[in-house]
Specification:
Elements (H helix, E strand, L loop, with lengths): L2 E6 L3 E4 L4 E4 L1 H15 L5 E5 L11 H10 L8 E4 L5 H8 L8 E6 L1 H13 L5 E4 H5 L7 H16 L4 H11 L1
Parallel strand pairs: 1-4, 1-6, 4-5, 6-7
Antiparallel strand pairs: 2-3
Helix pairs in contact: 4-6, 6-7
């Protein structure tokens, strides 16, 4: 059975010096783990999630991830792009329809983010294989304190709001 990976691509930012959008180190960690799984033939397709959090017409995180992956041997034909989602809840909702019923699902993110991602899938009755980028690459689970606090707050909101609507609102407020 074919295994498809839903990759929660990760944050990116606009570098004022180079005047270009850049992948964050966290996003690169997730992408390196994705390449490792692909090269080991653990996965056959990759669904890239993430839209343009900087506004309509700007580069999406999915699009920014493609050159990183293809320059490391991932074939473009094995990439499926979901570039509308602006938050993790939307990434889950919009990527699932791209998975065929015959495919097994694996979900990749960093360990801290994966705690919240698990809740989102569980609330939808879906039980994919969850993969932490740090485990795949043999790294320690060391997240920054602000990231841990952010993720803890968003997980608490998910316990109250199973659909993630409060989380979407909170994430949009955190971006401002």
């Amino acid at each position: 059975m074919e295994k498809v990976l839903i990759l929660h691509s990760g944050p990116y930012y606009f570098d004022k010096n180079s005047k270009k959008f850049e992948l964050s180190e966290l996003a690169k960690l997730r992408l390196r783990a994705c390449v490792s799984l692909y090269k080991k033939k653990t996965i056959s397709k990759i669904i890239l999630t993430g839209g343009s959090v900087f506004g309509k017409g700007k580069l999406s995180v999915s699009a920014l991830s493609i050159p990183f992956l293809t320059s490391r041997g991932v074939l473009k034909k094995d990439l499926v792009v979901e570039d509308k989602a602006l938050d993790t809840t939307s990434e889950v909702e919009l990527s699932l329809p791209k998975v065929l019923k015959s495919q097994k699902i694996a979900v990749l993110s960093d360990a801290e983010h994966l705690k919240r991602v698990r809740i989102l899938y569980r609330n939808r009755g879906i039980k994919p294989e969850f993969l932490a980028a740090e485990d795949i690459l043999g790294r320690s689970h060391s997240s920054s304190f602000p990231l841990k606090v952010r993720e803890a707050i968003l997980r608490i909101l998910l316990m109250v709001d199973r659909k993630g609507l409060l989380v979407k609102k909170a994430v949009s407020l955190l971006r401002k």
